Amino acid sequence: MLSTALPTEIRGGICTGPTSPKEDGATARGPGRVTIISDRVFDFRDYPAAKQDEVISGVDGAIVRLQRCVILGGIKAVLAGNGDHPGNDMRFGHWEMEDCFIMGAGRRCPEVQDCVELTMRRCWIHNWGRAFDVRSFGGWAHRGGRIAAERCLFTQSGGIFSLGLRTTIADIFAHVGQAWNDDGPSGLLRWQTYLPGVCRGLTANTGGLALATKCYRNKGWIRVENCNEFITLAAARELVRSIDALMPEEGRKRLGNLVDMFDGLGEA
């Protein structure tokens, strides 16, 4: 049964770290309660990585709307479903992300599990893996979680080894370990297991599902699973222009113009 409580709203402002070490920047709680986070900047770039957890999380069947938010840095950007309340997450959990920009987070851009559903519309995920701790990836659906990405961008400014050779090797080994934990020896037989994290734009496994339509990647080696149509560079630029027009002013102060940033990426 959905909660009859009024939605919790977090609107505007900036968060530069959790209120206490190892807490999340923002946590939405269920079951069936709606949390709306809009026009807010989360800049974790200067907060010590060892004291971080999630930038944004939703637990216990939370219903979450992220609108026009900016996430900069953070070892773990967005987690939908945390494994503690799979029943409520499966029954109630639903997320929508619209017109959001995530840059330089380590992973979970976003991560969705326990049958939670998340729809991304007009979002730009850029340079995931930079705030590296254990392993890196962009969007990941697993344990029955589902991500549908519509008109989203997944971009990297560097190459496959942009995190450095040592970090890339550690990253691949961490993904191999995760595959072993999830599937045992059979997990080692899938070629996707050995993908470096910077290649993992939007992926799914262990019963998860990733779907995409009219998305963009600036590198051919960025994996965006089940995308039925990739848009052109010109169409992607217009999409960035629309995201930039809605970006909160605090984000603009920290980033400048997103179109200029996009123009500097190039394709490969």
Structural key phrases:
alpha/beta, Pectate Lyase C-like, 7-stranded parallel beta sheet, globular
Describe it for me?
The protein has 268 residues and is of the alpha/beta class. It has helices at residues 86-92, 165-183, 233-246, 249-255, 258-263, and strands at residues 8-11, 14-15, 26-29, 34-38, 41-43, 54-59, 63-67, 70-72, 76-80, 94-98, 101-103, 111-112, 117-121, 124-126, 139-141, 146-150, 153-155, 200-204, 209-213, 216-217, 223-224. The longest helix is centred in the middle third of the chain and has 19 residues, at 165-183. The mean pLDDT is 96.
What topology does this entry show?
Layout: E1 8-11, E2 14-15, E3 26-29, E4 34-38, E5 41-43, E6 54-59, E7 63-67, E8 70-72, E9 76-80, H1 86-92, E10 94-98, E11 101-103, E12 111-112, E13 117-121, E14 124-126, E15 139-141, E16 146-150, E17 153-155, H2 165-183, E18 200-204, E19 209-213, E20 216-217, E21 223-224, H3 233-246, H4 249-255, H5 258-263
Parallel strand pairs: 1-4, 2-5, 3-6, 4-7, 5-8, 6-9, 7-10, 8-11, 9-12, 10-13, 11-14, 12-15, 13-16, 14-17, 15-18, 16-19, 17-20, 18-21
Tell me briefly what this model is.
Residues 1-30 are annotated as: Disordered. The chain is 20% helix and 30% strand.
Number of strands: 21
Amount of helix: 10-25%
**Low-pLDDT regions:** none
CATH superfamily: Single-stranded right-handed beta-helix, Pectin lyase-like
The helix/strand class is alpha/beta
CATH architecture: 3 Solenoid
Mean pLDDT: 96
* Tally of individual domains: 1
Shape: globular
CATH topology: Pectate Lyase C-like
Largest sheet: 7 strands, parallel
Output the helix-strand order.
Answer: EEEEEEEEEHEEEEEEEEHEEEEHHH
How much beta, percentage-wise? 25-35%
What value does the Rg take, in angstroms?
17 Å
Individual helix count: 5
CATH class: Mainly Beta
Gap from first CA to last CA: 49 Å
Strand order across the largest sheet: 1-4-7-10-13-16-19
Region (Disordered): 1-30
